[in-house]
Inverse folding.
């Protein structure tokens, strides 16, 4: 059964990675009234536009009877009414969020137990809201769930709680998202929600979100940061304020500060539109940016439009550059796998004609967008689509990521540097995918804990280079830091012949004898084979050298140690061997380290150690499929 949510990004913190607050410094922002903000207007012009727009629709579809009739028809076709009813548990007590569970993060560093309880309750609330919208009488249960939120001592996650340097931190991702969700629900069901409940919700939004946004003594590192926090917090608080704030001057001030802060978020993307945080965070952070963009556009009749920058258009295309097939993308950085949310694809296509994005959404058998949220239902017009297949090769040189395809085989590789947002020390990492299977892969994001966003982050194999398909030289892993970087080139893209990726990665290591390390990956026509060649140049022979490949599928080394097979039940066998170099393959199952795996995967580290070490060496590994 599908999990139905109000917005795919409302609960995305449970599915994708959230960065622990406090890693960025706070900065005070000031705007000169004549300087253009994001969207091209000055602060004075924004104030005028907001004042003239008061009372206008923020989400015009929320209370549109035609939209509701269309949504109900779609819901019936996709059996969502039945699924929503099955998901609801109105006969069970609403789960309490215990103090002891909230404080578990401080005691042990575990954040999963409390967050899972919170997500379960949020899912109930989202399903109850959907049921009420579709005409199922679950209003009392919905109001009880809403009241429970209002009674909660904290809307923040334990991992995001302040104070920091003596300053309170009142708004985190969850506060912002909760404010937007509750404001949307009470607006959507305005004539049905009991006045006492509505008034309580509005007071809590004011106290926890909009009032807090202006607190001069609080700490708001995210207002000027370059990662997903900027867009989610600005977006959530901004949408809530657009829906419920009645004071035009106060709303204008909030929107002005938001338009001043969001350019920092956009600057966190590379010039080619790449997201260093990975596809999961693109869906999360940029998704909230687009949500806010639509709300501002509708509220102001198009006079505030933050989707016009050419870089925004390139950012919109990013998932097309890193997708492998619908539901699967290049797994670099702290990312997770998933389909493109239908509502996000629809919203982007309001501003840019990118029909290919629909092909990355989950589709039903007849080509309809599969509805996973109430936002999907409200926005979807019933148009049929086809899964994206056979899309061209892609190269994002500024991000340092390439994806090439041939004969059903996809190779992805990255260079970049080791100080990216949600960084992994993974310069030179690569994946090989065939059919529906990652045969050689990148582990993606770990289960988050107190360690993940602390000075101990790189003790995790999910974040350090030991858990990635890159060499270990003289026993040393790649260090973290902007200076530890690589460069990447790609040739033969979209051509009928071989496709080649070249990565210069010596600077990703702090190994003084290492002068040069060049990795060349070649995908043969029709996907017949993949070769990976690493050429090392040292000033003297290294003390030790180990090549590494990462798999989550069963892997077994041959008895003579000269090859390895990786077996998929659905997509065959990958065989890995080395040409022209004596040495031994070994497969190690990382059982203890794999407890951090979000997917429950057992990581296998495939290593090759050469028999002899020389100042100059080239290892050529060959991958074939059976």
């Amino acid at each position: 059964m599908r999990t139905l949510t109000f917005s795919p990004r409302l609960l995305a913190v449970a599915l994708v990675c959230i960065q622990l607050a406090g890693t960025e410094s706070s900065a005070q922002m000031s705007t000169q009234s004549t300087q253009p903000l994001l969207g091209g207007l000055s602060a004075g012009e924004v104030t005028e536009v907001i004042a003239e727009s008061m009372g206008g629709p923020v989400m015009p579809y929320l209370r549109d009877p035609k939209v509701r009739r269309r949504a109900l028809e779609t819901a019936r076709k996709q059996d969502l009414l039945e699924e929503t009813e099955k998901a609801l548990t109105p006969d069970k007590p609403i789960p309490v969020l215990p103090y002891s569970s909230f404080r578990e993060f401080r005691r042990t560093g575990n954040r999963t137990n409390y967050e899972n309880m919170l997500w379960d309750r949020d899912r109930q609330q989202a399903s109850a809201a959907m049921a009420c919208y579709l005409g199922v009488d679950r209003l009392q249960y919905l109001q009880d769930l809403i009241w429970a939120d209002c009674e909660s001592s904290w809307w923040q996650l334990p991992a995001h709680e302040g104070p920091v340097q003596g300053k309170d931190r009142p708004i985190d991702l969850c506060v912002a998202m909760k404010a937007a969700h509750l404001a949307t629900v009470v607006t959507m069901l305005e004539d049905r929600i009991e006045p006492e409940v509505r008034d309580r919700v509005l007071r809590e939004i004011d106290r926890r979100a909009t009032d807090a946004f202006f607190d001069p003594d609080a700490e708001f590192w995210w207002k000027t940061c370059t990662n997903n926090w900027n867009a989610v917090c600005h977006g959530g608080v901004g949408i809530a304020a657009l829906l419920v704030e009645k004071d035009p001057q106060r709303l204008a001030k909030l929107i002005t500060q938001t338009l001043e802060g969001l350019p920092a978020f956009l600057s966190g993307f590379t010039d080619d539109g790449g997201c260093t945080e990975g596809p999961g965070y693109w869906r999360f952070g940029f998704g909230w940016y687009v949500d806010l963009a639509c709300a501002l556009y509708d509220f102001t009749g198009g006079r505030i439009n933050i989707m016009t920058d050419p870089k925004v258009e390139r950012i919109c295309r990013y998932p097309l550059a890193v997708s492998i097939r619908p539901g699967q993308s290049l797994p670099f950085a702290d990312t997770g796998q998933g389909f493109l949310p239908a509502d996000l694809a629809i919203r982007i296509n309001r501003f840019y004609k990118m029909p290919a994005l629909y092909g990355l959404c989950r589709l039903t058998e007849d080509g309809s967008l599969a509805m996973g949220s109430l936002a999907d239902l409200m926005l979807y017009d019933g148009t049929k689509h086809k899964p994206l297949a056979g899309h061209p090769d892609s190269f994002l040189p500024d991000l340092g990521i390439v994806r090439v395809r041939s004969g059903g085989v996809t190779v992805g590789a990255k260079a970049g540097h080791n100080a990216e947002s949600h960084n992994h020390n993974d310069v030179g990492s690569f994946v090989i995918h065939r059919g529906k299977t990652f045969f050689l892969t990148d582990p993606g994001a770990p289960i988050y804990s107190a360690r993940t966003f602390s000075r101990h982050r790189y003790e995790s194999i999910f974040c350090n280079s030991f858990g990635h398909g890159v060499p270990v030289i003289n026993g040393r892993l790649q260090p973290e830091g902007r200076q530890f970087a690589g460069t990447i080139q790609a040739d033969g893209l979209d051509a009928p012949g071989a496709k080649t990726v070249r990565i210069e990665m010596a600077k990703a290591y702090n190994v003084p004898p290492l002068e040069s390390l060049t990795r060349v990956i070649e995908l043969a026509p029709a996907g017949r084979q993949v070769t990976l060649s690493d050429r090392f140049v040292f000033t003297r022979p290294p003390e030790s050298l180990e090549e590494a490949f990462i798999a989550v599928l069963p892997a077994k080394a041959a008895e003579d140690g000269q090859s390895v097979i990786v077996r998929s039940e659905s997509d065959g066998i990958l065989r890995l061997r080395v040409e022209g170099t004596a040495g031994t393959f070994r497969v190690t199952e990382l059982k203890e380290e794999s407890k951090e795996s979000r997917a429950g995967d057992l990581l296998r580290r495939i290593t090759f150690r050469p028999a002899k070490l020389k100042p100059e060496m080239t290892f050529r590994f060959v991958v074939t499929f059976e």
